[in-house]
Amino acid sequence: MRLGKTVMFSLMMVSAQGLTAPDVDVGLKQQAPSFIELDRDGDGLVAKVEVERVPRLVPRFDNWDRDKDGQLSRAEYRNGLLGRASK
Ligand SMILES: [Ca+2]
Ligand SMILES: [Ca+2]
User: Is the per-residue pLDDT at 26 higher than 80?
Assistant: First the structure.
């Protein structure tokens, strides 16, 4: 499934990031910062400027922001990491 495709991607990223995800799933999610880590101001939403800390997530931001309010909710971020954002 998505594991095979994402493993290579993850291997490229793993050495550079050194991040730990508290609720590890697979692939991208394994290497991605947690929602809490991204939400620097603690308002419960991840704004685009907050995502810019993780440049590889930036191109995904608009796709993940399903209600187009310019912020990622916890659910949007999670769904994005799980690959369910593009509908
Ligand atoms: Ca925030
Ligand atoms: Ca949103």
Answer: no
Instruction: Report the largest interatomic distance among the alpha carbons of the chain, rounded to a whole angstrom.
Output: 36
Residue 42 Cα to ligand 1 middle (Å): 5
pLDDT averaged over the chain?
Answer: 80
Beta bridge partners, 47, equal 71
Residues with CB under 5 A from ligand 1 (ion): 39, 41, 43, 45
Residues 13-32: what's their mean pLDDT? 55
Q: Which domains are assigned to the chain? A: 2-81 (1.10.238)
- Would you say residue 72 has pLDDT above 90? yes
